[in-house]
Amino acid sequence: MSRDALLDIVVRNGAVLVLLLIVLAFGVLTPGFLVPESLGNVVKQASFIGIAAVGMVFVLLTAGIDLSVGSVMYLAPLVAGLLMREAGVDVGVALLACVATGAALGAVNALLIVGLRVIPFIVTLATLFVFRGFGTWLSQSQAVDFPDAVRGFGLGAVLGVPLPILVFALVALLAHVVLRHTAFGRQVTAFGNDPLAARKAGLPVRRIEAAVYVISGASAALAGFVLIAQIGRLDAGFGEGREFDVIAAAVLGGASLFGGVGGAGSAVLGALIIQTVKAGLVFSGVNLYLQPLLQGGVILLAVFLDGLRQSRLRLLRRRVIRPRA
Amino acid sequence: MTPLLRFESLGKDWFGVPALRDLTLDVPEGAVLGVIGENGAGKSTLMNMIGGVTPPSQGRMLWRGEPYAPLSAADAKARGIAFIHQELNLFTNLSVAENLFLDAFPRRRGLLRPLIDRRAMREAARAVLGRLNLDLSPEREVGTLSPGERQLVEIARALHRDAALLILDEPTTSLTPRETERLFAALDGLRAEGRTVIYISHILGDVRRLASRVAVLRDGRLVGEGAVEEFDVPRMIRTMIGRDLAQVYPTRSAPPRAAPVLEVAHLSAPGTVEDVSLTVREGEILGLFGLMGSGRSELARLLMGLDPASRGEVRLGGRPLLGGPRARVRQGLAFVTENRREEGLMMDASIRDNLTLPALERFRRGLALDREALADTAQALREAVRLKAQDLGRQPVRALSGGNQQKVVIGKWLPTAPRLLILDEPTRGVDVGARSEIYAICDRLAADGAGLLVISSELDELMGLCDRILVMSRGEVVAAFDREEFEERRIVAAAFRQAEDAAPGAAA
Predict the structure, then answer these.
(1) Per the structure, how many domains does chain A have?
(2) Residue B276 belongs to what H/E stretch?
(3) Which listed residue, of A116, B30, B87, B323, carries a Cα 20 to 30 Å from A248's Cα?
(4) Would an 8 Å CB–CB cutoff place B294 in contact with chain A?
């Protein structure tokens, strides 16, 4: 294999390699990290950020952004929790109510972005505060305890696979099929590449742009519910600042903030990278106060590597008009 | 017989300024109507009306005899009207097949109905591409195609929609001669099928070759219309500009001097440019001719420091030219890019901001900019390049016609007093009137002692303007012609010779 071909493989699979490198590095640093149990735990914990990141990929594909996911993670499970406590609905109904609330909150974002033509960054920055504020008012800033049935659901497993991982896998698979193999998914991808051309091509651009925020809201709500179902208790500060983990995960995995690039796999890879770093730092006993700094460093490094990858890809795509000497 | 499309007393005002006045015209079914006119003559306005982008202020349109008042691009599409714009509307991150079927993917059956039937899509795409004799894999990502290939994919998209009326706006500007021939063959095929085409182009020879009827617009009015046989190229020009354009190309006001400005020796870059040596003298206009993909633009990028060279030396005024674009501009290089919309202009910034950008450092007074000096300079530049604009400080460049945009791109380099100006396709998409003004600017720059390197795929232009022409093929300079040796047949042959020899498998 030629050097160029090898380099090509490296740059095209940057995120996978980063993940492998990080796993190996922690494996070498801390014996006991590279065992199925702790790795399984990493995947389980990654599912929280991962599920929301899958929704975020849809938004990023359209060159938009959703800063409100952290607040949706709080408000939507809160509505479900209150329904269970006050109305006594069962877990399945609560789950549906949670996702529906998330979708509705996403629809609010969509309405403001598509209907009023305000840029996504500003809209979702505002709803970040609005959604959390509404939740804080609803709960009177009190923690909400969920019935035991919820924990039974959250800590359950199918064929030995813990429920969070199962949900994460299903969501990622569904998103992959939608993005790659349905008309809607291809149109979302096209829209992010060139919104003007999408309009000229007669695509339902308003519907496309609105839908991605609904999807992002629903995913964030589901992510919140899956984590709360494991803890059994929803604190007032739940989900705060998580939007950055979610966006970082999607970008680390290969989605572009400029639209048109990325897939469900980006969310999976990115969430695993972030969670591996977090778990690895805890595992290797790094000073607790240093951990955020190191996490930030890893994100910077990965984004830098992604930049290298992009420029390398551009170089490879340049037209060659004569054979290389 | 009812015409396919009829315009009745159409008019459009923009804030009181008429863009189109009392236009009545029939587009008969099965005709190929060539629409010509200078930039700003009203062609775009007319097309935007057909496309549902701008509604007319007066008059109406009739489609197959029925009133037609489109509100959106979707309305036009629903009638079977397909547009192929100057700027392509393809999605570079999708495959060729996906681009063709983006608004109507073939679906799988039964339970899998929500999913795209990729196999059916591939087959259908192959069939459409086959009609254009386009040998492309439907799976190829459009971002990896050449501009010419993309253009043909865009036409394939219109074909596959079975458009009744196909509107092409300057479709050949980015095509090689061979791709152009392929496009024309495809259009001939469509005409034989009885489809109606509106063909807009500044290349009058192409209009003669393709159209069955010609409509000429000037200042928003229809000033001539008839069968193509009645319109030879001189008459087209006369009708378009309302006078005889005695000479498109300037008489050179001064001969080239002896001193070299630019000396390039053995310049190479892997995969694109191989061992190029050339000299541009003071006051000389050197033409660089070659087919698309011959390495002309790649050479320009090397000279500008946009791409790294692997070997060779470039000297400007005797001193080695090194560093990135910024350093080279400071040494006296200027580059009018082939792609003014993406690389040459800030489309939404004002004309003044664009004009004064390269020399901005000179207007610094302390930490601030000298606004008055900026305005004065912009005003002077406007006169120097005969820019037709209303308000330099407020009007965005986007609002200018193509020819005037190009004048801004050239004008913005004048205050840097470049010693060498590289112009890549300086008149692409520019009408005849503005063209001759651009040529005049070139002549004036040369007379002032600057060297000009003009890259163009239009040989006419190079033969009319240049002192010497170099021919490139596959990254190498393969021939050089002095002005007295200019002969179209020989220059084209030189451009093709190596391209023909180097069939797949032949040694480089």
Answers:
(1) 1
(2) strand B273-281
(3) A116
(4) yes
pLDDT recorded at residue A325: 40
Domain limit, last residue, from B192, B209, B241: B241
Mean pLDDT confidence for B136-148? 83
Q: How many CB atoms lie within 10 A of CB A297?
A: 11
Please check the confidence at residue A77 and state whether its pLDDT lies above 70.
yes
pLDDT for A11 beyond 90:
no
Domain assignment present for A33: no
Range of the domain at A170: 47-311
Chain B residue closest in CA terms to A321: B272
Residue B342 lies in a domain: yes
Let me know whether B376 and B403 are in one domain: yes
CA triplet B224, B180, A323: central angle to 5 degrees? 155
Q: Most A CBs within 10 Å: which of B93, B101, B294, B348, as the mutation test of the A interface?
A: B93
What average pLDDT does the structure give for chain B? 84
Nearest to B256, CA basis, from B452, B460, B480: B452
**Do B75 and B183 share a structural domain?**
yes
Over residues B94-98, the mean pLDDT reads: 92
Compute φ and ψ for B248, nearest 5 degrees: -75, -40
pLDDT tens digit string along B447-494?
999 999 999 877 888 988 999 999 998 888 999 999 998 887 788 778
Q: pTM for the whole thing?
A: 0.72
B contact test, residue of A61, A62, A186 with most B CBs within 10 A? A186
Treating both helix axes as pointing N-terminal to C-terminal, what angle do A264-283 and A291-317 enclose, rounded to 10 degrees?
A: 150
pLDDT at residue B242 greater than cutoff 80: no
CATH number at residue B70: 3.40.50.300
A177 and B115 within 8 Å at the Cβ level: the answer is: yes
Residue A168 lies in a domain: yes
Please tell me whether residues B338 and B449 are part of one structural domain: yes
Query: Is residue B234 domain-shared with residue B316, that is, in the same domain?
Result: no
Asked whether the beta carbons of A139 and A78 are under 8 A apart, the reply is yes
Asked whether residue A197 is domain-assigned, the answer is yes
A317 contacts chain B (CB < 8 A): yes
Q: Would you tell me how many other CB atoms lie within 10 Å of the CB of residue B367? A: 5
> CA-to-CA distance for B355 and B379, rounded, in angstroms?
10
Helix, strand counts (H, E) of chain B: 16, 22
Within this chain, do residues B306 and B211 fall inside the same structural domain, yes or no? Answer: no
Contact: A203, B102; criterion CB under 8 Å: yes
Using an 8 Å CB-CB cutoff, list chain A residues near B508.
322-323
The CA distance from A74 to B411, in Å, is: 57
One domain for residues B179 and B325? no
Interface contacts A/B by beta carbons within 8 Å: 88
Same domain, B222 and B271: no
φ, ψ for residue B432 (rounded to 5)? -55, -45
- Amino acid of residue B266: H
Nearest to B143 among A202, A317, A325 (CB): A317
Contact A96, A80 (CB under 8 A): no
User: What CATH number is given to the structural domain containing A90?
Assistant: 1.10.3470
The tokens of B148 are what?
Answer: 């010419």
Within a domain: A179: yes
Domain extent at residue B237: 5-241
Domain count, chain B: 2
B246 has pLDDT over 70 = no
Lowest mean pLDDT among A31-35, A248-252, B76-80, B121-125: A31-35
Q: How far apart are CA B30 and CA B299, in angstroms?
A: 44
Judged against a pLDDT cut of 60, whether residue B61 lies above it is answered with yes
Q: For residues B183 and A292, what is the distance between their CA atoms, to the nearest angstrom?
A: 59
Tokens of B289: 């001719």
Nearest CB to B102 within list A192, A201, A322? A201
Quote the Cα angle for A226-A227-A229, to 5°: 65
Given an 8 Å threshold on Cβ–Cβ distance, is A321 in contact with B295?
A: yes
Are B291 and B229 members of one domain? no
